[in-house]
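Budget justification aside, the reviewers requested a transparent look at the raw inputs and outputs of the sequence design task funded under Objective 1. We therefore reproduce one unedited record. The lines immediately below are the structure tokens for a 465-residue chain.
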């Protein structure tokens, strides 16, 4: 252990935990709220039947893929926002956020068009059951405007996080969660005189909640003179050279998250083709799993922010040992979260209206998720936190995409549709992609090739040591 690492472990340890709590806990709670929103949706719709639950499960896949595209490009942009914050360059943070919104909106218009005018074709990608498609069409079309709201909200939320204002997105998400839950109650079941819309009602509630979420974010930033707020033209004051720098870093993260999202959606497509019960079990388990996993992913987000700030300040060696400490913390959190998932599995599954067979399938799927969660958290911290904070996005993309598409997707279809394994064994086999990914990421971490300052050429500040 070097003297620098020893100093970090002893003198800076308390400060690190305190800073990590301030940055990561609000992100974790925001992720928990988002996952809880999906849980509430599925619980309410699931009470209508397994076909309805399956319909929502396949319908949200296009929104999940869109979210991953938004997250991917914004994550690549966040590398610059975090390092600009370390260099105390607010003007370039605004420009980065504005450029991210421009790209996100352009892409979201395409998703909006597909969902609004071609929902049948979208749903046929994910399921072969006509009754599920018929139920899902109304959901996909009703929630389509949410694509446009998310395109504005996600980049601005990333800017707030990069400047360590993580509590604000948490409060906004809390309001969106409460709104969505109340509107679900109204529109799914026709309560308090509202129309009874079933699956379509869940989509209407989500769309309205997303609109409110975006509106509150705009009010907080521009209406209350936030740190990153400014004149509108500052956000769109980027030139070609600036845009190319962002795109060069963000394209790999966008491909990374999009291909990961598509691959994950194809896992669902493979499992849902086994049968309606199996598809409903996987959908319920994914929702419960996200309660634990997405919150634990906050360590990766915090790593990008904290280590990226140090890289922007030019403290490259310190940044490396800080990242090492955070990766170790992610392993502990992953083990704890996985254990909690297994312990809470049966009580949470009892909230769903499953047949006895569906409940048995779901329980064993949760056991698989719980036992392998530490690998998922470890890999996510390395990809979304460590490699991206230093702009090493191409390697992160290759590690993720090759593992998912060369191992995960073929394994899902082979075990589910050819070998016809029980659903829980098929889910376990897919986790082989996490093993391969983890080996590649560990080697890259210790190579130190990701320890770079990426803003020097476009900020005008020579901050590298």
């Amino acid at each position: 252990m070097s003297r620098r690492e020893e100093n970090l472990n002893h003198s800076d340890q308390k400060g690190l935990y305190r800073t990590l709590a301030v940055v990561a806990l609000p992100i974790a709670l925001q992720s928990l709220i988002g996952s809880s929103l999906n849980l509430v949706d599925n619980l309410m719709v699931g009470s209508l039947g397994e076909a309805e639950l399956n319909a929502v499960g396949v319908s949200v896949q296009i929104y999940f893929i869109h979210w991953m595209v938004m997250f991917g490009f914004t994550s690549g942009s966040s590398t610059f926002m975090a390092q600009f914050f370390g260099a105390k360059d607010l003007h370039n943070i605004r420009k980065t956020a504005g450029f991210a919104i421009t790209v996100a909106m352009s892409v979201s218009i395409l998703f909006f068009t597909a969902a609004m005018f071609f929902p049948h074709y979208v749903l046929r990608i994910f399921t072969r059951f006509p009754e599920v498609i018929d139920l899902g069409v109304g959901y996909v079309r009703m929630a389509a405007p949410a694509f446009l709201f998310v395109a504005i909200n996600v980049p601005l939320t990333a800017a707030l996080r990069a400047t360590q204002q993580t509590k604000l997105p948490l409060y906004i998400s809390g309001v969106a969660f409460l709104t969505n839950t109340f509107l679900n109650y109204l529109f799914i079941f026709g309560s308090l005189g509202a129309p009874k819309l079933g699956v379509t009602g869940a989509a209407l509630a989500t769309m309205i909640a997303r609109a409110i979420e975006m509106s509150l974010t705009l009010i907080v930033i521009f209406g209350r003179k936030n740190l990153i707020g400014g004149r509108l033209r500052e956000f769109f004051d980027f030139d070609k050279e600036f845009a190319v720098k962002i795109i060069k870093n963000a394209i790999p993260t966008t491909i990374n998250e999009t291909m990961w999202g598509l691959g994950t959606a194809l896992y669902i497509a493979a499992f849902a083709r086994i049968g309606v019960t199996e598809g409903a079990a996987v959908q319920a388990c994914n929702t419960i799993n996200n309660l634990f996993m997405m919150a634990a992913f906050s360590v990766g987000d915090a790593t990008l922010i904290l280590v990226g700030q140090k890289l922007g300040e030019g403290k490259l060696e310190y940044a490396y040992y800080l990242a090492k400490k955070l990766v170790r913390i992610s392993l502990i959190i992953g083990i704890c979260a996985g254990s909690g998932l297994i312990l809470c599995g049966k009580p949470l599954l009892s909230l769903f209206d499953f047949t006895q067979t569906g409940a048995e399938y779901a329980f064993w799927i949760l056991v698989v998720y719980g036992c392998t969660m530490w690998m998922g958290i470890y890999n996510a911290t390395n990809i979304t936190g460590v490699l991206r904070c230093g702009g090493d996005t191409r390697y992160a993309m290759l590690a993720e995409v090759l593992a998912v598409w060369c191992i995960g997707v073929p394994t899902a279809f082979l075990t589910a549709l050819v070998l016809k394994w029980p659903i829980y064994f098929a889910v376990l086999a897919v986790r082989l992609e996490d093993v391969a990914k983890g080996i590649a990421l560990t080697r890259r971490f210790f190579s130190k090739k990701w320890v770079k300052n990426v803003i020097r050429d476009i900020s005008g500040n020579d901050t590298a040591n």
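Residues 3-459 form one domain. The first helix runs from residue 3 to 10. Computational costs for records of this kind are itemized in the attached budget.
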